[in-house]
Amino acid sequence: MTTHKNRVDPVITLLPLIGIALFVIFYIIAAIYYPGGSYAAPNRPGFSFKNNYLCDLLDNHAINGAFNSARIYARIALAILCLSLILLWYYLPKLFNRKNKAQTIMSIAGMLSMVITLFLASEVHDIIVRTAGVFGVTALLIAFIELYNANYYKLLIHGIICLFFFLTNYYIYETEILIDKLPVIQKITFLSCMSWFVLLSIHSYRKLVST
């Protein structure tokens, strides 16, 4: 006899896609309203794809000293994204046929990483980044092992590329080597990771639909 007690509606696994889309929309709005200034060009008006960091949009004041009217949109975007990825990490174990404790650790670590990231706009930005990064990398490494064991090789390779970009960001941030290139590398990293999360959501949906 089949039980529906623990059955999950597959559509729930697609909610992160909506969240990611909303994040992009709100961040574009935030970039439009950003007063201006970057570390490379403090007095330049507007948001620069080449010189501004995504985190610049979260601050109370823009780098040029003006009140940052973009911050409300950026913070809404961040909250939506983190909540969406919390949901993704929560349901990600559903992607795998064989369940184990490592997947539980992966799920918890991934969710903790996103909960901590919610406070990115606080005064302890660097601590938030490093702490969230530790939990995030832990979740990623376990996810890679599980993807390999489940023969999701394309997802595995994509994930490893994301981790490579992430570690590159961290290395540049800490050493300041090629620091002038970091804003662009940050955005490439972000796009790579978001596309990976989209694929994970789609595969989780397909997995639940087929069972």
Keywords:
single chain; about 210 residues; mainly alpha; disordered N terminus
Strands, helices and their partners?
Elements: H1 15-33, H2 71-91, H3 101-117, H4 125-149, H5 153-175, H6 182-210
Helix pairs in contact: 1-2, 1-6, 2-3, 3-4, 4-5, 5-6
How many helices? Answer: 6
Main sheet characteristics: none
Q: What distance separates the N and C termini?
A: 15 Å
Query: What's the SSE pattern?
Result: HHHHHH
How would you describe the shape?
Answer: globular
How much helix, percentage-wise, in residues? Answer: 55-70%
Mean pLDDT equals 93
The number of distinct structural domains comes to 1
Structural class: mainly alpha
Strand content: under 5%
Quick description:
The chain has 6 helices and no strands.
Structure description:
This is DUF998 domain-containing protein. It comes from Algibacter agarivorans. Keywords: Membrane, Transmembrane, Transmembrane helix. The N terminus is likely disordered. This protein has 211 residues and is mainly alpha-helical. It has six helices and no strands. The chain has one domain. Helix content is 64%, strand content 0%. It is globular. Helix 5 runs antiparallel to helix 6.
